[in-house]
Specification:
862 residues, 6-stranded mixed β-sheet, 15 helices, 21% helix, 27% strand, globular
């Protein structure tokens, strides 16, 4: 049993959380279910409810009130069982603070004056208090203006990083609820927190960045609620009785890195039984509308993996160069001993140049951490309020010899559950897929960013729009993206314009003021639809429908009666490899062809959304609008010869993939697309817009062999060229590192950008063979299409119903496929050369040998 899209039910912000459960393999299809709720008033059972559905089912009782706990379990009826199943293991859901009036805490921070235009030394805040008896239960509800790490009685609370994350702070500031019962004791106690600038008031953005985007204060908002056996409570909330002092962190920034002076650190600063200290002074209190405090919709950022150095090299000038063998996002943890005042400096970069760190692509992100030793013996330390994108680090000032066991790279990202895997007989393709996974991990850091290393790291709408199908297969990112899309809706302008990136920060002169742009703004319509298809969440689709509708209505107004969006600023097929490094938007495809194609595509998906939501009038209106735009597209951009006005792969891919062409035009477009690809020896010729579509466009028009040639090309530009150059993530540019070993001279040269990795969705569906054909994978098509000399492939996805898997291999007799269908789902097996057949839940082995049809040896016996 799970609740909404959360890993657990503690501190949930929804009074009536939806329930999802999965059935064990072999259980058989569900015919009915019964839910039991155990609340303070005793158990309540729904009785048998006839329904085959088990994903995001309605809460079966009165809504939860703030702080209320309920035990939840379910049992089901299946056709072959005379009795209901045993009850599932009970899960507990506990509401957070659902009413603004529940909050007594106010923001508290440094009481001393600070220069808001300068770097400011972060503060720590704390409060001593007593408990007259042992607590039965204790919850800490906590957030901050900036970043925080909380401690109680010398122990850290939780394990999340960069909390509370980045949202549109004036409207939504996330708080998290922690069970801190075990942290407290009868008698003296102390609660405290480290504070950092983060996105709230740190320097962030382009060209030197902007400080104090949301405010000049740095403050903790915390409410500790202690409940005793008799039901009485004690509340310790941030207020004017707290104290503050400068901490041992001298400077901290997401771009800059962190400087920590261990000589100034008292390890017992948050422990009880301390007397008054001169450096602890009264806090300054601030204000925060409690109605803007919201509970999380997804998991937090955490350390999810540790990687030891692959090599440590001593340079001639005494530095140590570390290679971790993998481009990652995180920070270093080191253990070091040396004399007081020793300065150890850590610098980070993704690639090397002339034997040293290539820091040019970082622009004004210095990515430098500094530790000043206290001379008190071995110290284990890592920064608290920064992250870096790096494979390499160099260390200066290390006292003595540095060995690999002294330094660890700790990988950080939003701690989503992994749900998708793929591998095949081609080792380069496997490395490409692994690179996609690593780039998603590095850029899903509370929001979907473009890159994790330079002075940017923003939630670009176009990047996630093209990558969402891949992302939603690889990880359960529904809660995280649902939260981010909520911010997209908040930042949407009254006229319907969707910003280039969300949250919005200053980006003059190119990105501010905000202008509407195709492919980027279409995140409002296409990404909610993708998430609905992958996770089956009709509520998500409903929540974001107003945003999608405003976006399509804006495009309709901009296009006018012509139905052609052919005015205004557009990025077109961004980063087309033919575009010059200094102008990534100057591709070969007409920008307004791209804009009009997306107008039609979004209008079509808005009509589909309206149909799912039961709004027949909107469905009819927007379907008609989509038809009109497609007709205008054909009249303007398709020539009588069948060629397109932009004779480019992206133009043909858009026309085919977005279904904008007549059947005859579609055939001609597919042939011309294949001809263009082969004429360039299957090197890639598409940017952000064309790249996610081109393999599908080729496949769907009978040119699967050309799609595989494109996939398997290793010359630049291609998907596999970076792999042959040792890449371990997806690059922003096809030639971020040029064949001669030089860096691309463009001002945007990242080595960790997931957008061009959107081809992994084609790998999952076509090379691997698993496609969702009903929301949430309730219906699945197994349709592998081998090619390119690949002799076997296997892919697996954890759907909301359970595991769906397909492995296939070519044999001397034909093809053998092994299919797994989750309970509660049904599938179609559509294997090459065979008529499709229906598969029910279970394990199936299908064998093909032309011209025979497949024969199943599945558990179900069909």
């Amino acid at each position: 049993m799970t609740f909404e899209h959360l890993p657990d039910g503690l501190g949930i912000g929804v009074p009536a959380p939806r329930l999802t459960w999965t059935l064990p393999p072999g259980a058989g299809p569900q015919e009915a279910y019964e839910v039991e709720l155990v609340r303070s008033g005793g158990p309540h059972r729904t009785g048998r409810i006839d329904s085959p559905h088990q994903v995001l089912m309605p809460w079966p009782g009165a809504p939860l009130t703030s702080r209320e706990r309920a035990g939840v379990r379910v049992r089901v009826w299946t056709p072959d069982a005379g009795e209901p199943s045993p009850w599932s293991e009970p899960r507990v859901v506990e509401a957070g603070l659902l009413d603004p009036d529940d909050w007594r805490a106010v923001p508290v921070g440094a009481g001393w004056d600070e220069d808001p235009e300068a770097e400011r030394r972060p503060a720590r805040v704390r409060k001593d208090f007593r408990l007259d008896r042992p607590p039965a239960r204790a919850r800490l509800h906590v957030s901050a203006h900036g970043l925080y790490e909380a401690e109680i009685n010398g122990r850290r609370v939780g394990d999340e990083t960069l909390a509370p994350g980045w949202t549109v702070y004036p409207h939504r500031l996330r708080y998290r609820t922690h069970d801190v019962t075990a942290h407290l004791t009868e008698g003296a106690n102390t609660i405290g927190a480290w504070l950092g600038d983060g996105w709230y008031r740190g320097r962030y953005g382009f060209d030197g960045g902007t400080r104090n985007i949301y405010g000049t204060d740095q403050a903790l908002i915390a409410q500790l609620e202690v409940t005793y056996d008799d039901g009485t409570t004690t509340v310790i909330a941030t207020d004017r009785t707290w104290a503050a002092a400068p901490g041992p962190i001298l400077t901290s920034g997401l771009y800059e890195g962190e400087t920590f002076d261990a000589r100034l650190h008292d390890p017992d600063w948050s422990a009880p039984h301390r007397g008054a200290a001169a450096d602890w002074t009264p806090v300054r209190t601030g204000t925060r509308d409690p109605a803007t405090l919201v509970a999380p919709m997804g998991p937090p950022v955490r350390c999810t993996e540790e990687i030891a150095p692959a090599s440590v090299t001593r340079t001639t000038d005494g530095r140590h160069l570390l290679d971790f063998g993998q481009n990652l996002v995180g920070r270093l943890r080191l253990t070091v001993d040396g004399p007081a005042g020793t300065v150890v400096t850590l610098r980070h970069a993704e690639v090397l140049q002339d034997g040293g760190l290539a820091t040019g692509p970082l622009r004004e992100a210095y990515a430098t951490d500094t530790l000043i030793l206290a001379g008190r013996g071995p110290l284990t330390w890592e920064p608290r309020f920064t992250l870096h994108g790096f494979r390499y680090a160099d260390v200066t000032g290390w006292p003595g010899e540095l060995t690999p066991d002294m330094v660890t790279a700790r990988v950080h990202h939003t701690d989503m559950r992994r749900t998708g895997w793929f591998e095949c007989s081609d080792a380069l393709v496997n490395r490409l897929h692994e690179n996609v996974v690593w780039s998603m991990r590095g850029n899903f850091v509370d929001l979907p960013t473009d890159c994790p290393q330079r002075d940017e790291r923003l939630g670009w709408t176009g990047d996630i729009q093209v990558f969402a199908p891949t992302a939603s297969y690889l990880y359960d990112c529904a809660g995280m993206l649902d939260s981010w899309l909520t911010d997209v809706g908040i930042e949407q302008l009254p006229d319907g314009t969707v910003p280039w990136y969300v949250p919005v920060i200053p980006g003059e002169p190119m990105w501010t003021p905000v202008q509407p742009g195709a492919a980027w703004g279409d995140v409002a319509t296409l990404t909610p639809w993708t998430l609905y298809q992958r996770f089956g969440d009709i509520g998500l689709l409903h929540r974001h429908y107003p945003m999608a509708k405003k976006w399509v209505d804006l495009m309709e107004g901009l296009a006018g009666p012509s139905r052609l969006w052919d005015t205004g600023f557009q990025l077109g097929d961004w980063l087309d490899p033919a575009a010059p490094p200094e102008d990534p938007a100057a591709g070969v495809t007409d920008r307004y062809l791209v804009a009009t194609a997306y107008f039609a595509h979004s209008a079509r998906h808005l009509a589909l959304t309206a149909t799912e939501l039961g709004d027949d009038a909107d469905a009819e209106r927007y379907a008609s609008l989509a038809d009109e735009v497609a007709d205008a597209f054909r009249r303007r951009y398709v020539l009588p010869s069948g060629r397109m006005t932009s004779d480019s792969p992206t133009a043909y891919a858009l026309g085919i993939a977005f279904d904008l062409l007549t059947p005859q035009q579609r055939r001609s477009a597919g042939d011309r697309l294949a001809e263009l690809v082969l004429a360039d020896e299957a090197r890639i010729a598409t940017g952000f817009v064309g790249t996610p579509l081109i393999c599908d466009a080729l496949t769907d028009t009978g040119h699967l062999d050309v799609a595989y040639r494109l996939l398997l090309q290793t010359e630049c530009p291609s998907w596999l060229y970076p792999v042959t150059q040792g890449a371990t993530t997806i690059w922003e540019r096809w030639d971020s590192l040029r064949p001669d070993g030089s860096l691309n001279p463009g001002g945007m040269t990242s080595f960790n950008h997931y957008a061009l990795g959107a081809v992994a969705d084609w790998l999952h569906r076509v090379a691997g063979g698993i496609t969702a054909t009903a929301p949430g994978y309730r219906e699945i098509t197994f349709r592998p299409r081998p090619g390119g000399g690949i002799t076997w492939a296997r892919t697996r996805h954890e759907t909301p119903y359970g595991t769906a898997a397909l492995s296939w291999e070519l044999t001397t007799a034909g093809l053998t496929a092994r299919c797994t269908v989750p309970e509660g789902c049904r599938a179609i097996a559509d294997l090459p050369g065979c008529e499709p057949i229906t598969l029910h839940a279970g394990e199936h082995v299908l064998e093909t040998a032309a011209p025979a049809f497949p024969v199943s040896r599945g558990r179900s016996g069909t």
